[in-house]
Design goal:
Layout: H1 2-19, H2 24-31, H3 33-36, H4 57-66, H5 97-109
Helix pairs in contact: 2-5, 4-5
Bound molecules: heme C (HEC).
């Protein structure tokens, strides 16, 4: 019984994260919009809508988390390497793939 309780307590936070899908729009506005523009059309950073928003999911994740673009080239500063950073609301924890996917899905809905 004790072991069961420990298992439940350990799984509980995961279950909560899974129950609430990440909000791609909020994550984008808080962490990306200042460089890539409010509508993903570009600013100091390149436009993402109609470009990286259409990349394969794995390529988009790699660009955001590891700083490597679709051609295999390293992305230059000031594009952050998010794998070694954290989204504002994540309090120091590196972004998850689910969060990055949610941002791409949000960008995909923008025209
Ligand atoms: C401080 C400014 C800045 C922030 C914040 C930023 N980026 Fe970037 N991003 C850039 C710049 C500049 C480039 C271009 C780098 C290069 O060409 O080498 C870039 C490139 C990219 C690329 C590759 C685009 C392409 O066509 O090659 C993707 C994808 C990307 N950023 C996604 C994001 C996402 C998603 C976020 C938020 C989680 C974000 N960026 C936050 C500045 C930023």
């Amino acid at each position: 019984m004790k072991r069961m309780l420990i298992a439940i307590t350990m799984l509980w936070p995961c279950a909560q994260v899974m129950a609430v899908p990440p909000d791609g729009k909020a994550l984008y506005q808080e962490n990306c919009a200042r460089c890539h523009g409010q509508n993903g059309k570009g600013d100091t950073g390149p436009k993402l809508v109609g470009d990286a928003s259409e990349w394969k999911r794995e390529l988009f994740e790699r660009a955001v988390l590891k700083g490597i673009d679709d051609q295999g080239k390293p992305l230059k500063s000031p594009m952050p390497h998010w794998g070694a950073a954290s989204f504002k609301t994540d309090k120091g924890i590196a972004p998850s793939k689910a969060e990055v996917d949610a941002i791409q899905r949000y960008l995909h809905t923008l025209k």
